[in-house]
Predict the structure.
Amino acid sequence: MAVSRRVFVATAAVLAVTGVSRPAIAGTAEDPGYRIPVSPDDTEADLVRKASQVRPTARQIAWQSLERTAFLHFGVNTFTGLEWGTGDEDPDVFQPAGLDTDQWARALRDGGFKLAILTVKHHDGFVLHQTRYTAHSVASSSWQGGQGDVLRSFADSMRRHGIKVGVYISPADENQYLHGVYANGSARTDRTIPTLVEGDDRTPPRSYTLPATDYGAHMLNQLYEVLTEYGPIDEVWFDGAQGRIPPDKVEKYDWDSWYTLVRSLAPDAVIAVSGPDVRWVGNEGGLAREDEWSVVPVQEKDYGRTDYALAYDAPDMGSRAALVKARPVADFLQWWPAECDVSIRDGWFYHADQQPKSVEQLTDIYFRSVGRNSVLLLNIPPDTDGLLPAADVVRLREFRERVDRELPEDLARDGRTTASPGRVTVDLGREREVDRIRLAEDIRHGQQVESFVVEAQRDGAWTEMTRAGVIGASRILLLAAPVRARRWRVRVTGSRAVARVVEFGLYRSQV
């Protein structure tokens, strides 16, 4: 964040909650309390108490602080014009003659992005690294004489420019379906990972015995390559896509084995979206709910997959009413924060006839994602030359500059701050105009605030300027017009337990 954080303990006076004992929890010594079991017999009070006790893991806290992350959809679809490939593409169609991943990294850095995710494998099954387990890859293309490795170049460039590295490996695989591996009906049996192949000169320091189908083992072997040969990985992104196959041949994914391997080889990486660390917000417009909870009811399905207890696009995912509604089917209350994905263009892959969204559109998305307790995942697709399009590069820089003007110097940084139960007051020293307010809780202690008001003292009286529901890791409020006042306060009106407000920033937009 752009401002230093100061911790203010704000306990809602109407609740006067000072602390609660924690029940037995599901988790590990490394990750205590990120999920707590619930039962259909829990009362509303039980559910709220348990929700107040859920805590994020260190990896989740680090992820939520990123704010802006990038997606790069790149592969054979870039050259065929498709959004979902067929799996029988000629690998030689992949010809990014001008590939420059340093250009990608510079553009993302200048756009304010902290992490980037590459589509190492999309649904078509074409792989962007030198894999041992399929011929549908860059190794079978004449590009760079079959020696090209987009993932290697991408990972090196991102780290060189201070950007964390993420990978997307689609669970679906049209190519492996054509080869009789994906959705072939094979049983789950113990598989040794990595599975060495002819000419394989690796001496793995450790191998893993994990239950998997034929295709599950294929995915595990590719995950092993990516997580052991390309440096530290900070996010592993799965969706739940199924191949375009007959409904009676659906592949039931080996989520438990995939999670185990990622946790072992990349312990600091968050596993998103079909994963236990980060959830999909429920739309591809980049928009969070008005009140976006990080503590939500979940259920386990399909070999340990973390899944929604309510509909993925439910308008309310974590309020008291939502907790009660999910009670019959929920297994846990879990720290499962939202990631808001959206593409800068209409498609996820590059299409020459599309143009990037306007600065105004991107800024609105920022306030409705980062400003609503979520992380923005913006897709910027490389073109057929292997470059981010010039128009998109310009737009990324303009986007960062616009956000910087929307939230310039924090006027409260040098103010005098006082805290009392349920409120935090800032004296700016003199009257200043304010039209942007930024709040955050110290999420190390969970997400507690259910409602609050922001007030300014005018003519000796405290006057409400705006009110809202949750805060979480980041809440940004926009006033309809600038308000001039010297003294400002945030007053918590509803809270599940002790609410620790760690940021109360006041800004005057320069737009």
